[in-house]
Amino acid sequence: MAWLSHGTRIVLRRHALVLLLIASMALIHTLQYGVSLEFQTRFMAVPADVVEAWQLLRSGEADLASLWPFATLVTYAFLHAGLDHLAGNMLLFWVFGALIHQLLGWRWLLLIVGVTAAGAGITHTVMNPESLGTLLGFSGVVYGVMGAYLGLSVRWQLPDPHVWPIARPVPPIRLVILAAAYVAIDYFAIFGGTLGETAYGAHVGGFTCGLFLTSFITPRPAQALAKR
């Protein structure tokens, strides 16, 4: 890596996990072009299938195969409908995911990714229990890391974030406003009845899970100060 600039090496070292997740997502999306839609659908969350699996589990009639829909409540997040879908999610994940990684470390970032993916899928299922439509995309997790950053900023006095390639540190309040604006759009869509094909419920579910984790569970970031 001697041929890389010093700044690039720092970025790679500090945010290796975020970059690995983004690269993995890009690789998975590339592989999607080589497999059938039927095969891809096996990894997408279908609310009606999840509800059926839950009913079988409650009745004691479930077997290993019938529990697979529960796994799709996480696997759906790693599939995307197109390059624009992937690029939009990865751009926001880079900014907020890198900040969570920097503030809390890789273990908490992985936990937040897993919990918010599942939380987003479950919320979408609860809101659409009879739907046979498929859920896919990382946006629930993106909203999760935005909610997580909001929780940290409310709970602690955070340092000004500086995420490459942003030229200078940005006051945390600006990113908080951005996160709040994104989720406000989803709330307006849900209560206004203009859902369309966008999984607004998944966005809200992911955001809420991330906000809860950092508001009540995660430790204080090493760089943060307690608010007075």
Mean pLDDT: 88
Number of strands: 2
H/I helix tally: 10
Unreliable stretches: none
**Large-scale geometry:** globular
Order of helices and strands: HHHHHHHHEHHE
Q: What is the topology, as strand order, of the major beta sheet?
A: 1-2
Q: Into which percentage range does the β-strand content fall?
A: under 5%
Proportion of residues in helical segments: 55-70%
Main sheet overview: 2 strands, antiparallel
Radius of gyration equals 18 Å
N-to-C CA distance: 44 Å
Which structural category do the helix and sheet elements fall into? mainly alpha
Polypeptide structure, described:
By secondary structure, the protein is mainly alpha-helical. Helices cover 66% and strands 2% of the residues. It has ten helices and two strands, in the order H-H-H-H-H-H-H-H-E-H-H-E. It has helices at residues 6-14, 16-32, 37-41, 47-59, 68-75, 83-104, 106-127, 139-155, 172-192, 200-216; strands at 156-157, 225-226. Strands 1-2 form a two-stranded antiparallel ribbon. Helix 4 packs antiparallel against helix 5 (68-75), helix 7 packs across helix 8 (139-155) and helix 7 (106-127) crosses helix 10 (200-216). The longest helix is centred in the middle third of the chain and has 22 residues, at 83-104. It is globular. The termini are far apart. The model has no long low-confidence stretch (mean pLDDT 88).
